[in-house]
Predict the structure of Up-regulator of cell proliferation-like domain-containing protein.
Amino acid sequence: MEDQSVTEFAVPLLLPQGTGSQSTLMLWALRDILKEWRPHSLSESKGFEEGNIVLLQMRSISFVRLQACSMSKSQLLNHVLSNDQQNHNIFAHKDMDGGEAPRTISDGLVDTFWYLPCGNRNGDNFPEPLTVANLRGDICASVNV
């Protein structure tokens, strides 16, 4: 494992209701994802941990938007989750290429992203693994409030 963070993209975790009345939780589809990371507790030994991402116990943070806002929640999340040297488009947002495409099926979709530290105390935003869930669209519209 190299001593640098690897930033990837978010994947669907919860699909909104289609023509039926139930949403679809995608954990079974994500069951084969194996990852490795280096928590700060192992940074001196250069060791790392490896595990199945859906079975790993870690803190989880969820983000939703309540009605109209001039600032992009997903763009803000991308900035917070990226390291100081580069800003990555982890979550899709309106200012990225293709971000203005009509949302025909993505409103109500919950994307998830796993932040896995590399053991670099100066480069890691978080010292331990973290799950971030982001609701696409407005929560008021998603739950018919």
Summary: The beta strands are 11-15, 24-25, 34-37, 49-52, 59-65, 110-115, 130-138. Residues 73-81 form the longest helix (9 residues).
